[in-house]
Write a structure and sequence with these properties.
The protein is α+β, with helices and mostly antiparallel strands. It is 64% helix and 13% strand. It has helices at 3-6, 10-30, 59-78, 85-110, and strands at 37-43, 47-53. It has a two-stranded antiparallel sheet.
């Protein structure tokens, strides 16, 4: 019943991949090949509690790319058997990509 609605969800995967590319381009545009120190983590009580190299921010889009791949494999495994969970994986993947992009934007605004 639901599978007819969610049958063609390829746009979720394409949009998730595009958001990941935007995250890579954002990091490259703001940092480039420089290696200066940034505040990478903030705490509401103590303020900045983790400084690190700006190159560590490249790990955020790489993590998103890895999660995109893992979710794609999970989607391919679940698609023949689970009619609702397979499309849900695509939606969750897109939400995760947007959360990672939001994290990068907030770190760049704060620095």
């Amino acid at each position: 019943m639901f599978y007819g609605i969610f049958k063609k969800i390829w746009f979720l995967w394409v949009l998730g991949f595009v958001v990941n590319i935007v995250a890579f381009l954002l990091v490259f545009n703001k940092i480039g090949r420089n290696d200066y120190t940034l505040a990478l983590h903030y705490n509401t009580i103590t303020g900045i509690d983790w400084y690190g190299s700006a190159r560590f921010l490249y790990q955020i889009p790489l993590t998103g790319l890895f999660l995109n791949l893992v979710n794609w494999i999970l989607f391919k495994i679940l698609r023949p058997t689970k009619l609702f969970y397979a499309p849900l994986v695509g939606g969750v993947n897109l939400v995760v990509q947007f959360i990672l992009l939001l994290y990068l934007i907030l770190v760049f605004i704060a620095n």
